[in-house]
UniProtKB/TrEMBL annotation:
SUPFAM superfamilies: Phosphoglycerate mutase-like (SSF53254). InterPro entries: His_Pase_superF_clade-1 (IPR013078), His_PPase_superfam (IPR029033), PGM_Phosphatase (IPR050275). This is Histidine phosphatase family protein.
Amino acid sequence: MKTIIYMVRHAESPYTEGTERTRGLTTKGKGDVEKVTEILKEEGIDVAISSPYNRAILSIEGLAQYLGLDIKTFEGLRERCFAGEIIEDAELMSVIREKFYDFDYSLPGGESNSDCQNRSISVIKNILKEHSGKKIAIGTHGLVMTLMMNYFDSSYGLDFLNQLKKPDIYKLRFENLELKEVIRLWNEDLD
């Protein structure tokens, strides 16, 4: 049975250390959320799901309100925990680039790509089973989205992650638990 997942990578969010769960969206991000709603409002979406992080919820909230849907959050869809202590953004990006394909590598107190992929895929598989034949919008994050897509198709890796925008939208067509097609819906001209 055909099930569609719309992966909505969150809109632009101001980075402030220690606010991973609660930070909102920038002015540009808020404007882009309106564009996300415009793109997806006629897709026939049945279910709205998100990471529990505020920026991901806010990125699909306008769509959910337009469609009259409640947003269900799942802890397993949160962004990867990179380290147990504060790490400089430039250093973090360097580690992500250098260690992306070492799926078992993690910084002290953090989780590996493998850990993140396993927990998020467990949620996605349940979503695909529970909402089989439906269209589902998911508010998500760049790295966890890449890892979920990589599970189904290994061509989604570091190059894919590096080209993602904030926000970005990918339409994934599944037949049962098999990814059959991926279409990017976010248009570069919308940035």
